[in-house]
């Protein structure tokens, strides 16, 4: 392989995107092990997964703008080093706090510098059909990283150690450094004094407050803070948009060119990226929770259950890129949303205490077909709306909202599941006929905490109720899964509806 190798840039981009998306899906199947080894709860692990995507989203605009100050290649490599430091920290974690620092914060900041640089490097390295193919491959590998992650995580967690999920990423980091000569540097167009510090503050804080507010819904004692966090975050985000517009009108360099959002293709493309990420993130979080809590599968079997969907996502990502050369990308999107919605609808009817892994495969495969089509189109379609001079801002905004969607998906769908469980436990307790009103609340809290610990240890409830605990929790989770997947179907139908308004534009380049 020499410097003239046509797909060298895509090779590097694919290795980078693979390790960034691998973490969340790979570690989802290790939830039970993480809860036990780090002495934590499902909600905290859910929070770490959501915060990982949130940190990426929050720092994405800053990471994108740094390209204009340092250059794309230098920004990419600097982000890679920060990411590697986070990977080492996560590998050596001895508690949830250390995992949060390494995985969510350091890896998140590193990824926020890598992702926009990767998008613009790929976008600027290819044209025409090669550009469509490059983004299709890139999107497909992103899908594989998210979807194959469960089987990778399952193998490591069950037979070796979950820590190797993070440790193995250092091999990819080394590979990227070896092949870095394929990357071309861009000339810096800004200086540090041009950086919009106020915009950085407003964008980071607003997004963090909104997602934290959603995560606080998992515990009733925190509900009084939810409206304050989400409300203040929303106000700060509106202020951010106003501040960006003000800087643009005054001839100053904004953190991001928000005028792109007025472009119909870019705005709707970004919206559909967010809508697509929410069910994908929710799916990858709650399916392993069900499989490990109710069907009592280990990490490997959990990953094995998701493997057919993983393969289908890869195949359909590649097919979708080919399909867009024959029909308008808009219609590929519409088909993708519709098929994914059918998949979640099928899944909404299969959850009960007797559900086995094979019962889930038909629905997950149909869902995977739809997601594969979506991932093959969304990045290229959205980026096609940006001119050459807007690619940096466009990639920053797009990746910011995509990761915000993933973070919100993990938070919203996880919260919806936990709230459904929290509310449903009361009926399960009453069905035993062994409690009175004076002890019901204590039993409810004891069962919920037992569920939060992935049914490990002994539930803190009256001894006569202990034999009923697994059945009560399993029945409640099954019911909650049915409700949650119905909501996922509605979200995907919303994506189908919004994609109707995307301008028809065959093979956008």
Give the CATH H-level superfamily: MFS general substrate transporter like domains
Summarize the main sheet: none
Radius of gyration of CA atoms, rounded to a whole number:
22 Å
User: Which structural category fits the helices and strands?
Assistant: mainly alpha
Distance between the termini: 28 Å
| Shape by Cα distribution | globular
Please report the number of helical segments: 17
Please give the share of residues in helix: over 70%
How much of the residues is beta strand, in percent? Answer: under 5%
Instruction: Give the domain tally.
Output: 1
CATH architecture heading? Up-down Bundle
Write the element-wise H/E pattern from the N-terminal end onward. HHHHHHHHHHHHHHHHH
> What's the CATH first level?
Mainly Alpha
Q: In total, how many beta strands? A: 0
CATH fold group: Growth Hormone, Chain: A
Low-confidence stretches: none
- Nearest-integer average pLDDT: 84
Pfam family, one: MFS_1
Subcellular location: Membrane
Organism: Methanobacterium formicicum
InterPro entries: MFS (IPR011701), MFS_dom (IPR020846), MFS_trans_sf (IPR036259)
Topology diagram in text:
Elements: H1 8-28, H2 31-37, H3 42-70, H4 72-91, H5 96-125, H6 128-159, H7 163-167, H8 169-178, H9 197-215, H10 223-249, H11 264-293, H12 299-323, H13 329-347, H14 357-383, H15 391-432, H16 437-452, H17 469-499
Helix pairs in contact: 1-5, 1-6, 1-8, 3-4, 3-5, 3-9, 3-15, 4-5, 4-8, 5-15, 6-12, 6-14, 9-10, 9-15, 11-14, 11-15, 11-17, 12-14, 13-14, 13-17, 15-16, 15-17
């Amino acid at each position: 392989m020499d410097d003239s190798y046509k797909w060298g840039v895509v090779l590097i981009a694919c290795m980078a995107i693979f390790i960034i998306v691998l973490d969340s899906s790979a570690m989802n199947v290790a939830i039970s092990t993480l809860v036990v080894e780090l002495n934590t709860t499902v909600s905290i692990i859910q929070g770490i997964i959501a915060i990982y995507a949130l940190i990426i989203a929050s720092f994405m605009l800053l990471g994108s703008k740094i390209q204009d100050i340092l250059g794309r290649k230098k920004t990419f490599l600097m982000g890679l080093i920060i990411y590697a430091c986070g990977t080492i920290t996560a590998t050596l974690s001895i508690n949830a706090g250390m995992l949060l620092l390494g995985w969510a914060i350091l890896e998140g900041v590193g990824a926020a510098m890598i992702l926009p640089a990767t998008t613009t490097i790929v976008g600027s390295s290819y044209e025409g059909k090669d550009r469509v193919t490059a983004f299709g491959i890139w999107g497909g590998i992103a899908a594989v990283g998210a979807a194959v992650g469960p089987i990778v995580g399952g193998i490591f967690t069950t037979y070796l150690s979950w820590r190797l999920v993070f440790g193995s990423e250092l091999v990819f980091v080394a590979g990227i450094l070896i092949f870095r000569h394929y990357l071309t540097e861009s000339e810096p167009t800004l200086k540090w004094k041009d950086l919009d510090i106020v915009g950085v503050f407003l964008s980071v804080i607003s997004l963090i407050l909104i997602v934290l507010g959603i995560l606080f819904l998992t515990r009733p004692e925190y509900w009084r803070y939810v409206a304050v966090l989400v409300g203040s975050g929303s106000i700060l985000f509106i202020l951010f948009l106003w501040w960006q517009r003000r800087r643009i009108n005054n001839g100053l360099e904004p953190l991001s060119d928000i005028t792109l959002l007025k472009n119909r293709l870019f705005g709707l493309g970004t919206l559909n990226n967010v809508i697509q990420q929410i069910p994908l993130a929710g799916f990858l979080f709650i399916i392993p929770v069900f499989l490990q809590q109710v069907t009592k599968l280990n990490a490997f079997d959990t990953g094995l259950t998701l493997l057919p969907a993983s393969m289908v996502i890869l195949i359909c990502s590649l097919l979708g890129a080919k399909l867009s050369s024959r029909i308008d990308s808009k219609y590929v999107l519409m088909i993708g949303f519709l098929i994914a919605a059918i998949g979640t609808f099928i899944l909404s009817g299969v959850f009960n205490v007797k559900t086995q892994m094979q019962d889930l495969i038909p629905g997950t495969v149909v869902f995977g077909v739809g997601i594969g089509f979506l991932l093959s189109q969304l990045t290229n379609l959205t980026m096609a709306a940006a001119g050459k001079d807007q690619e940096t801002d466009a990639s920053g905004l797009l990746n910011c909202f995509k990761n915000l969607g993933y973070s919100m998906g993990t938070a919203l769908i996880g919260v919806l599941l936990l709230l459904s469980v929290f509310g449903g436990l009361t009926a399960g307790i009453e069905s035993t006929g062994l409690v009175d009103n004076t002890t019901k609340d204590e039993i409810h809290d004891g069962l919920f905490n037992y569920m939060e610990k992935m049914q490990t240890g002994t539930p803190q409830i009256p001894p006569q109720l202990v034999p009923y605990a697994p059945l009560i929790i399993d029945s409640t989770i099954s019911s909650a899964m049915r409700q949650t997947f119905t909501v996922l179907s509605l979200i995907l139908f919303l994506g189908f509806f919004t994609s109707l308004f995307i301008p028809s534009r065959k093979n956008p380049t």
